[in-house]
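Lab notebook: predicted structure, single chain.

Context: the supervisor wants predicted structures on file for every construct in the current expression panel, including those that have not yet been purified. This is the next one on the list. No modifications to the sequence; it matches the entry in the shared construct table.
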Amino acid sequence: MSIEIKKYQQDVNFPSTQQMESSDEIDLRELFAVIWQGKWVIIAITAIFAIGSVIFALSQPNIYKSEALLAPADAEQGGGGLAALAGQFGGLASMAGINLGGGGGVDKTQMAIEVMKSRQFTSEFIQRHDLLADLMAAKSWDMANDKVIYDVDDYLVDTKKWIREVNPPFKPQPSMQEAYKEFSKLVSINKDKETGMVKLAVEHVSPTLAQQWVTWLVEDINKVMKQRDVLEAMRSTEFLNKQISLTNIADIRSMLYKLVEEQAKTIMFAEVRDEYIFKTIDPALVQEEKAKPKRALIVVLGTMLGGMLGVFFVLIRHFVRKED
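Prediction complete. Output recorded below exactly as produced.
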């Protein structure tokens, strides 16, 4: 008797596998039936998203990308000579209170990349080439006349006046902090760890400006790094000459003269070479084809999103009504 009762409880509490499969099958049929009944709602939502994505894609301006491939300039920056002197005269230099440095020195290429990414270099670059309007107010590009079309709500071209409406602490004319953030979005600098090659790219609504900015960036970073090294070499030379006049020890004077010679080499190299840090392997070009937006992809993704939202809406509506 007890065995029959247990059997009865198992049958009541735990349905068979066949019953569960039947239940799942009914649920799937119900879902497909609900989706089929709400097909016009799904189609309508999908169509709205498809039309909206088309409008959005067409409203986006073409963005052109100009790239340049750069190689680190092969040159003696004085590091090798100084390292040799440090090994030869390290003891004497320590006695004289002079630090020749050691180790592998600073990677000039990486330093130049970081300088290009810095706020100071970017701000000076924008001001030097008067890029604020092209950076912050450019709306689209007139291909026929090769001219940038500016947003009239932000900038008046004729009077060169900023009229954009912003809340404090911002002002109608964008600050260098705003310009730096926008510039960082348009410029990319990537170094290949294996080859050491550097790829510099700029995106803009105008392919002409994109190409011009890449060219200017390469020229300016070479000039800035050259000026830094020349100024440092001149200061070092001045200091070393003072030390020469203050010592009578022959070995130390010999060491100091060689240091002065190394600084002279640095200055001479900088003066005779324009491509001081980067050599241009593949210069930037005015691109004929846009880099983005991918309008077809935008439309496809927008339509798919509309379809999925339509299905979710129909199913949620059905189950909410079912519970009520």
